[in-house]
Amino acid sequence: MTETIRIDRHPTWWRITLDRPDKLNAVTPEMLTALLAALDAAAAAPDCRALLLTGAGRGFCAGQELGPTVMPGPDGPPDLEALAGGFHHRVVARLRALPIPVVCAVNGVAAGAGASFALAADIVLAARSASFVIAFARIGLVPDSGASFFLPRLVGEARARAMALLAEPVGAEQAEAWGLIWRAVDDAALAAEAAALCERLAAGPAGAYALTRQAFAASAANDLAAQLALEARLQGEAGRGADFAEGVRAFLDKRPPRFPPRGA
């Protein structure tokens, strides 16, 4: 546990909470360092089969905190290239590279890099009162942390460009209708639904999930022929794994599958 990140370890899944509620969980380099360490710890923990990312208080993440080190000053402009590449982009890359499914529960505003962190998850739930703001243009910056990658693929280029250029909030129900997120849920139900989803994923085929994440990660750069070849290779790997053996046995026995631990 740190001052800015809280980790709750459940028997089969972990919850990581951004924990600066007085700042709407705006991130700092120190906070992002702690988040990266928490993600590494989850990846290394054999009993962690799913990960939930959420925020404390009334916001998910307001993006980068605009402190003195990231604002123009008497010493000239800040090095935002180093900040984005050294911290924000490492978080997004780490979320995408984890060997386990990632659920994000957006409990309030997700703005700037905070919106990108949410969209890097596999499954995004949002409270109906939540909103997504690609806010960079409001302060004369460009989308980063993967926003220019995720948005066109999720909502199409027309909506992506408008979200980035206008920087207007998109509510959770609109986000669901556009395909930006998986589902909008009642505010009071968000925590329970996110936990139930993690429990469900944690009981699933860990090896197959990891291979599925590999397939989707590669699809953005592959043409159809390359993706078909990758699917065939990954399917062969899955077919040799313990998840498939147990899944078939359970199907034939007409019982729920009991998938083996991660790495088995």
Describe the structure in your own words.
This protein has 264 residues and is of the alpha/beta class. 46% of the residues lie in helices and 15% in strands. The protein has 2 domains: 5-202, 2-enoyl-CoA Hydratase, Chain A, domain 1 (Alpha-Beta Complex), CATH 3.90.226.10; 206-253, Lyase 2-enoyl-coa Hydratase, Chain  A, domain 2 (Orthogonal Bundle), CATH 1.10.12. The chain has 10 helices and 10 strands. The chain is globular, with a radius of gyration of 19 Å. The two termini are 29 Å apart.
Count the DSSP helices.
Answer: 10
As a percent range, the share of strand residues is 5-15%
Number of strands: 10
Q: Any low-confidence stretches, pLDDT <50, length ≥5?
A: none
- Helix fraction by DSSP (H/I, runs of at least 4): 40-55%
CATH domain class of the largest domain = Alpha Beta
Rg estimate, integer Å: 19 Å
Number of domains: 2
Query: Quick one: biggest sheet?
Result: 6 strands, mixed
CATH architectural category of the largest domain: Alpha-Beta Complex
Average pLDDT level: 94
CATH superfamily of the largest domain: 2-enoyl-CoA Hydratase, Chain A, domain 1
Q: What is the SS-derived class? A: alpha/beta
Shape from CA axes?
A: globular
Q: Span from first to last CA?
A: 29 Å
* CATH domain topology of the largest domain: 2-enoyl-CoA Hydratase, Chain A, domain 1
Strand-and-helix sequence, N→C?
Answer: EEHEEHEEHEEHHEHEHHHH
Strand order, biggest sheet? 1-2-3-5-7-10
